[in-house]
Structure formats: structure tokens, C-alpha cells
Amino acid sequence: MLYDQLFVSMERARWNLSRDIDFEAIEPAKLTRQWILDVREVCLAQLAALRATEMFLGGFRADIDFCSFVSVWFYEEMEHHLVLRRYLEHLGEAVEETELPRLRVSADDAPAIDALTLRFFGEQRLSQRYAALAATAPERVLGRIFTLLAAGEARHAAAYATYLRRAVERNPAALPGVLRLGLWTMRGADDAASPAAGVGGASRAQPREDRHYIRRMQGLCRLLAPDSTMVAEDELPALRPAAAGAL
Asked: Could you tell me which residues are beta bridge partners of residue 197?
């Protein structure tokens, strides 16, 4: 089982909330009100792991290996929520328990492999976001927290890649769908991050050259199906402008 190796590797890398974060060293005066609000937003957003866990345990109910891994992932995601909540408490910005139920995100169920693909990309984006927050944090303890969270999300992305690769090995016909969903996710993330994005994240920027995405999708293809021949540009029809616009 993949879980056996992942459990050990993640346990070795795991930090300890009680020992590794010096909450008493926090310097509140270094934080602006916007930074506090941003930390609060990230803290509460981590609760999305609740819904994702429910979806995974339902969609993968027959896959004991993956469901076992989800138990570790869920634990670490909730630790991310808790460390940020403790940080806010030391700032006098406690998150009240009565606030939490309304943050339970409800979303339509997705096919199992689609949910796995979206989680793989989501963990990568979180790692990048937390790394950027760590690099710009004006307060040392907060910078350390986001550094730890970034590393954790990167490990999660690697673990999800392992399960996604196994899913493609078991069902090679699923690879084109995974690539199309990956393309849609990459384009959406780039549009949302664009300085030209309009209100609500709608982008007014021109789409990037398809060759930019072809290179990235070829890398994804090699990651998920190392022995596949579907890495040549003319064998990635989903990346052509007409098809991509229809996604």
C-alpha cells in the first residue's frame, strides 16, 4: 500500500504545534490590520478540508489505501487551521466557534479522479501561496508558520501525485481527461492571478500562448504516465485554441 510509505515519510517531516512554534515571541506591532485579516482568511479557508475529506471517503470508499492516506492529510490540514487560529488568539483576534458551521463548504460531488486531480493542483497552489506569504510576512513567527505550511502543502501535492499516477496506471483511458482538467485548472489559476483580472476574478488579459501550456502539460503527462507516448505537441489536441476555448 502507498499509505505505508507515505505515513512514514510524512511523519518524519511533520512539525509539532506544541514545540516548534514560539507563540510567546510574536510581535503584534509589526502586523498591519490587513495582514491580520489575511491570516484570518487563510485560517478559515483551511476548513475546506472538511468537505474534501467527506468527498474522498465517499468517492473512494472501496480504496482502503487512499482513504487511509486521507486520514493523515486531514489531520495535517486541520493542524494548519489550528496553528493559525492559535496565532490569531495571541493577537487578541480569537475565532469564535459559532463562526465555524457557516464555513462548511457544500459542493456538488465530482467523479473520483476529477476530485483527485483538482486536489493535486490545489495543494500546489496553496504551497506557492504560503511560500509567498512566508517571504513577505512582516513578523518572524508568522513567517515561520507559513514556511512550515508551504512545505506541508508541497508534500501533500506530491502524495496526491502518487495516487493520481496510480489511478492513470490502472485506467490509462483516464489520462486525456486528467490533462484537460489540468489545463482548465492552470488557465484558471493564471487568469485569477493576472494583474488584468477584473472584479470577481474575471480576466481581461489575453490568453497565454498555447505553447506555454503545452510545455506544462507535457511535464504533467510525463509525471503521471512516464511510459506514455502522449507527450508530443500534435498528440495533445486539448491544448489547441479551439478545443481549449470549449473547456
From this structure: 203
Judge whether residue 241 has pLDDT over 90.
no
Task: Name every residue whose Cβ is closer than 8 Å to that of residue 38 and which is 6 or more positions away in sequence.
Answer: 133
- How far apart are the C-alpha atoms of 121 and 127, rounded to whole Å? 10
pTM, full prediction: 0.79
Q: Which residue has the higher pLDDT, 27 or 101?
A: 27
Cα distance between residue 56 and residue 164, in whole Å: 13
Query: What are the structural domains, with CATH classification, of the chain?
Result: 2-170 (1.10.620.20), 174-247 (no CATH)
- On the question of pLDDT at 50 being above 60, the answer is yes
Distances in Å between the Cα of 61 and the Cα atoms of 57, 148, 232 are 5, 31, 36
Q: For residue 158, what is its C-alpha cell?
A: 506530491
Say how far apart CA 22 and CA 176 lie, in whole Å.
47
111-123 as b/e: b if 16+ CB within 10 A: ebbebbbbbbbbb
Between 90 and 58, residue with greater pLDDT: 90
Residues 210 and 244: beta-carbon distance below 8 Å: yes
203 bridge partner residues: 197
Q: How far apart are CA 13 and CA 151, in angstroms?
A: 9
Number of H helices and E strands in the chain, helices first, is 10, 0
Distance CA 220, CA 14 (A): 27
Tell whether the model's pLDDT for residue 215 goes beyond 80: no
Enter the C-alpha cell of residue 200.
470577481
Cα distances (Å, whole numbers) of residue 76 to 2, 17, 21, 33, 82: 18, 11, 15, 27, 10
